[in-house]
Amino acid sequence: MVLCLHSGSQILEKSNREKAMDGIIHIEDSIIMNIPNIPRMCNTINLHKGWINTGRVNLYYEEEGEAVPLVLLHGGPGSTHHYFHPYFSIAKGFARVIYYDQRGCGLSEYAREDGYSVKQAADDLDSLRQALSIDKWIVLGHSYGGLLAQYYSVKYPDSVAGLILVGSSLGVHIPLNQTRQYSFISNFELNKIRDIQQNPNLNVEQIVYNAHLNGDWKRQNYYKPSRKKIAQVALYEWKHDNYFRSDMGTSMNRIDLEGAFQMCPIPTLIIEGRWDLTWNTDKPAKLKSNHPQSTLIMFEQSSHSPFEDEPLRFFHTLETYIQNLPEIPPEAISQWKEFLKEWQAEKEEDPEYILRSVGWGRNSNRIIIEKYHRQWLDVLTDISLLLKLGFALYDWYEYEEALLVFDKMEEISRYQGSLFYAAVALIWQGHMLDLLGQRDKAIAVYQEVVNMNVQGMISHSQFGMRYNPSEYAKEKIEKPFERIENRYDD
After folding, report:
1. Angle, helix 383-395 to helix 362-371, in steps of 10 degrees
2. CB crowding 92-117: b at 16 or more within 10 Å, else e
3. What letter does residue 24 receive in the DSSP assignment?
């Protein structure tokens, strides 16, 4: 079958194209230093292009079509709007399609200020809406953009006429089965990709280009992309500020929207590719469960981007959704906003939410300490959150309480079969015992870690620490732990 996406666009042959699950191994003979100079897809499409000043930053945007506004939120975090081209030009017949690069990405301004965050990205998005004189729009989030779309809908519900989540991040902290993204990449290809990623002579574009040529395309593609497409991916679709991904990763970990959409009146469409290897097969239903009024549609011959893999069905689905979009009664939005106030109040009393919503610095730890109750130990089972709580208590000289937390962390780690984190918990038990003047008990704990002979390193960057638990424990047997101050404010 031949699919012509729109006048003047590239033509895609879908039949007989290599698929990720075919398991075909291809290794290039050499590293390619010169990426073909393929022009931006934007330059081949008749688009209105410009920059919008939000009051704090200049955002690059494009639009085509004149119907109901549909804004596209790209993923990554750290990708760009470019990968929506040329596919979403199909939608210009039934929507005003708005593309943009998020702050710190693509052609938009790189303005870190206090740090990139999901909150800042949502505020930027609504500033874009206002600058374009749009009352309400349909928000479509892809991948990480789906998390941003969900957060934006909770923060700005009056601005959202419809919510579409495509291959979306969950936005909730619930267990998921292991990713499948390496299921069809051979060990030969993995070794080659690893060598490419560790090559100090390659820049980011060269790494992306060569990695994709040697099998990395299989992680998020259903069909093997052409070399021309891979060049465009490398040149235009992975551009961001050097701080962007670390900042945004921290921010994303603090977002927990579990339960927020129980009374959501915004018509919500969830689109998932059956072969989206970013996650496992349990993910679509778990996302749907947090949006009980939503409609979930599976695309059987798609991976992470159904709009690319099955464009005819995707855009027919999108057009049907938009044409049948009901008007949301104002009272329904008001009721949801009241529900969200109660939901937020309950969340702010939830130990897991409190611990996830703040950072690892002293100011964040002060917030934790002000809300801490010993009863938290009855409900906390996440090893990383117990470690975070223990550090907060230590940071503010609550050594006896911290010792109880590290005891619980050890118990949970052993129960979950993680000997390494049990050793880390014991290390910090020893630290607290040293600080409490119980040196004999501290030495006994350190000796237990030595006897465990665990392998691996752990870092606590806020304290400037990096160590192998068993080796470090030998040092602490000889020399007691002395307090180290937190280097981070937030």
Report:
1. 100
2. bebbbbbbbbbbbbbbbbbeeeeebb
3. -
With CA atoms as reference, report the closest residue to 73 among 137, 18, 143: 143
Kindly tell me the number of DSSP H helices and DSSP E strands found in the chain.
17, 12
Q: pLDDT confidence of 10, banded at 50, 70, 90?
A: very low
Q: Is 309 exposed, middle or buried (0-12, 13-18, 19+ CB in 10 A)?
A: buried
Question: Three-state SS string across 75-92, please?
Answer: CCCCCCHHHHCCHHHHHH
pTM score, two decimals?
0.88
- The span from the CA of 37 to the CA of 314, in Å, is 30
Strands (DSSP E) found in 338-450: none
d(CA 258, CA 343): 10
| Domains of the chain (ranges, CATH numbers) | 2-179+242-337 (3.40.50.1820), 348-478 (1.25.40.10)
Q: What angle do CA 452, 455, 459 make, to 5 degrees?
A: 110
pLDDT digits (tens, 9 = 90+) for 348-375: 899 999 999 888 999 999 999 999 999 9
